[in-house]
Amino acid sequence: MKKYSAFLVLLIAISWSASAVNSFDRSAMYPYSKSFDSVGTAFEIASLLAPAILLGEQKSEYLTIGTIYAETMLAAYGLKELGKLCFQRARPFMYFTDYPQTKVDEGDAYDSFPSGHVTMAFAGASFACSVFAAYHPDSTWRLPVAVATYGFATATALLRVASGNHFMSDVLAGALIGTAVGLGIPFWHRKAGLTSFEATVSPYALAFRITL
């Protein structure tokens, strides 16, 4: 029985060894870093706040922008959660002996693919760039806005890898999902002609109207 248990432990250790990871991801595997984790989260928050640049638009546009942004965030969140549910990939820090036990206890150790932080960060950045460009197609600020917002999102991705939370393929997948959603949903609204939302409040109900 003891020999069987020892063999089972060895088998699990081998299956989780770094050599089991593809060469692309193996080139950037790091143990857990709490400081990088915290800074990466800060950059994600900055990316999510990027659409605040649209507060410079007319107040009558706030409901429309806010509604479409809410749709974008819900779609990005749902897709990244679906990915984590389907793949349940161990995070890179699990391949090191000093992995954080609290992450395991919280059930977060097997949510590596795709990166949720990066998905949300790129969704926020892409939304901000797309909608700003739609309102100001000839503005010279389009490039600076894109550089700043995507800079925050890219920093989020790099820090998620450096913190040991994700493989490179995790953050690349998150960036693709977030960008597709952040650009796609505003584009769909413009294409479908769903460009205006109005809210009516009465003592009995709250009603919304979409103008085509």
TrEMBL record:
Domain of life of the organism encoding this protein: Bacteria
Entry keyword DNA damage = no
Residues crossing the lipid bilayer are: 36-55, 118-135, 141-159, 171-189
The Phosphatidic acid phosphatase type 2/haloperoxidase domain covers 64-186
User: Sorted alphabetically, which keywords does the UniProt record give?
Assistant: Membrane, Signal, Transmembrane, Transmembrane helix
Q: What is the protein name given in its UniProt record? A: Phosphoesterase PA-phosphatase related protein
> Which residue positions does the secretion signal occupy?
1-20
From what organism does this protein derive? Sphaerochaeta globosa (strain ATCC BAA-1886 / DSM 22777 / Buddy)
Q: Which InterPro entries match?
A: PAP2/HPO, PAP2/HPO_sf
